Known about the structure:
Number of helices: 10
CATH topology of the largest domain: Rossmann fold
Mean pLDDT: 91
Distance between the termini: 24 Å
CATH class of the largest domain: Alpha Beta
Number of strands: 14
Strand content: 15-25%
Amino acid sequence: MTTHLFPNDPLALLFDPTAPLPTIVQGITGRMGRKHAALMRAYGTEIVGGTAPAGSKSADLKEVDGNPVFRSCAEAVKATGAVASVAMVPPFEVLAAISEAVAGGIKLIVTVTEGMPVADAIRARALVQAAGARWVGASTPGVAVPGRTKLGFIPSVSLQPGSVGVIAKSGTLSYETNHRLVDCGLGQSVWIGVGGDACKGTRFAEVLPFFNADPRTKQIVLVGEIGGSEEEEFAQALIDTQCTKPTFAVIAGHGAREGVVMGHAGAVVHGNTGTFDAKKRALEGAGARVFASVDDLIKAMLAAH
């Protein structure tokens, strides 16, 4: 099992179908926390409780929709054995939520909030790495193992057990891509949204070794976009790991005009670095097939399947 190949990386929990994933929701007493805790639980995620922000009006609540509310992540871990958390908190509280999760013993932390300050993200990444934990975010729709669990607000209609490993920056584009995979009967083995921020907890290249080692994953799909260097890093990782699994990529932003502000903090082009053509060259040089539209990607995957 993949877990045995990566015994010290909590991301392996998503790739081992026998690994339990008891999960808490940080901010479960808030409107979004409460809503998505219920949706995740309805999908099958093992939601075992949550926490309320310290000092908030809801800090004294004992339960929310049958989920126990704890005063801290440490208390939640002690009572439930939770190994994962989904943080539903405002941007300036994400770092504190990650710090509390790490201090409490949480190993896999997913933060969905957009607008996390860059300085906070830099500190959070260093903190998580020092603790041997794994952070997915910020600004991610979450992660999912179809038919088993989803952590975040990934739409259930875009999930179906299958053999395609998916990693994505864009939430919306990944929803469309994955919905099309479901419609075609392909489905996903694991779906990981790394988020669109420049500084984040998990990058494309860090996920590749797991997909490469996962026996359920037969094809890999990267949903990228112009800006930053993650796609180029992933291309180098394809070469370094000697990955032989068919890899497909759709890169958003091919028609973006110069000077137009993009929606993601990481979608910044510097000179020729981060352009569609630069990413296409790097990925194709590593053996991947690159497309500018989801339609073309799906057609190629069906033809190769």
